[in-house]
Amino acid sequence: MVLKGKSKIIESKYAKTQYLIIPSAITRDSQYPFKHGDQVEIIIDTHRKLLMIVNKPSSSDAKYNSADATMREDRKDAQKRRRK
Asked: I need a surface site. Which of 4, 26, 38, 68 has the fewest CB within 10 A?
């Protein structure tokens, strides 16, 4: 079974970080394979404009940060810029 829905990509106002919005109709489906805090690998095929998200097993590999950690860093950076 393939889960399918419409979405959009948004960009942080204060950084080049982009976020993919996944509709709740997809995330609530019992076939949806991801949960909050999962570490994932993002693979982009630029020729076909295809984005793949692959679930990675838990590891101490720092290059796979959770989206929450990234958003917290974006907020901290924005706060620092506002103070200047």
From this structure: 4
Q: How far apart are CA 42 and CA 3, in angstroms?
A: 18
Report how far apart, in Å, the C-alpha atoms of 30 and of each of 9, 42, 74 are. 24, 22, 32
Domain of 22, in residue numbers? 8-83
pTM over 0.70: no
Q: How many domains does the chain have?
A: 1
Let me know: does 43 contact 55? Beta carbons within 8 Å. no
